[in-house]
Specification:
Layout: H1 4-11, H2 16-46, H3 49-66, H4 70-88
Helix pairs in contact: 2-3
């Protein structure tokens, strides 16, 4: 007796070549975007790269570390303000 997974895989096997083509196209787009990004970073480092590289690193850190959890950071800031106000009194 076939499992449900085997039945589904058998039923949709004809879609594999199209899915592979979509996958190759997506990977090619990502690779091209990565090469363009590397070329942009290399040109930025050639002219004042230290400043632009630091700004890019700060922006990336902001977008990856702070921005997704901005409510948590705002809550922590509010708690510190409460602690500071309690200590002042």
């Amino acid at each position: 007796m076939k499992t449900p997974r085997e039945i589904l895989l058998e039923r949709h096997r004809h879609a594999e070549p199209r899915l592979d083509a979509v996958r190759r196209k997506a990977l090619a787009t990502l690779a091209a975007s990565g090469r363009a990004n590397q070329a942009h970073l290399a040109s930025a480092q050639g002219s004042g790269g230290a400043v632009k590289g630091a700004a890019a690193m700060l922006k990336k850190a902001w977008l990856e570390l702070i921005w997704p959890s901005r409510r948590a950071w705002a809550g922590m800031a509010a708690l510190w303000l409460v602690v500071l106000a309690a200590n002042v009194e």
